[in-house]
């Protein structure tokens, strides 16, 4: 019952905390959007440039070896090179994904700290 009587006293502090959580969430979301946009733009540029470079390189190799008996070997080596490149890109992508910051991470950390305080306040109100 004391909890209901102490609620009007705690309301301003609770509202300030809610507003702070909203601010933290907006900062986390803005950072996540910036990180995602930067990663997306970089990936698109890399993909387009790499695609054109690979196509031109393959055309050069095929044109150079077309009338020789190395034609099949050249194509096999290019396929192997693409496979190695794909594996390297997958390893890089997994490293980037591990290092990415958690969505709403600061809100989670602050909630863990505030939850302890809130439990203490509620426990103190129940004892009175």
Write a concise keyword list for the protein shown above.
single chain, 3 helices, rod-shaped
Query: Based on CA inertia axes, which overall geometry fits?
Result: rod-shaped
Provide a count of the helices: 3
Query: How widely separated are the two ends?
Result: 9 Å
Classify the secondary structure makeup into a structural class.
mainly alpha
Largest sheet: none
Helix coverage percent of residues? Answer: over 70%
Radius of gyration: 29 Å
How many strand units? 0
> Poorly predicted ranges (pLDDT <50, ≥5 residues)?
none
| Whole-number mean pLDDT | 82
Order of helices and strands: HHH
SS strand fraction: under 5%
Topology:
Layout: H1 2-65, H2 71-99, H3 105-127
Provide an overview of this structure.
By secondary structure, the protein is mainly alpha-helical. It contains 3 helices and no strands. The protein has helices at 2-65, 71-99, 105-127. The longest helix is centred in the N-terminal third of the chain and has 64 residues, at 2-65.
Give the gist of this structure.
With 128 residues, the chain is an all-alpha fold. The protein has helices spanning 2-65, 71-99, 105-127.
């Amino acid at each position: 019952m004391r909890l209901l009587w102490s609620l009007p006293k705690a309301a301003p502090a609770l509202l300030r905390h809610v507003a702070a959580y909203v601010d933290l969430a907006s900062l986390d979301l803005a950072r996540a959007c910036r990180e995602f946009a930067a990663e997306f733009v970089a990936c698109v540029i890399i993909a387009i440039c790499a695609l054109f470079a690979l196509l031109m390189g393959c055309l050069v190799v095929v044109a150079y070896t077309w009338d020789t008996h190395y034609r099949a070997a050249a194509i096999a080596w290019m396929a192997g090179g693409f496979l190695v490149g794909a594996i390297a890109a997958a390893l890089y992508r997994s490293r980037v994904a591990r290092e990415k910051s958690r969505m709403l991470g600061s809100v989670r950390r602050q909630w863990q700290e505030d939850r302890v305080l809130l439990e203490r306040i509620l426990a103190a109100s129940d004892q009175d």
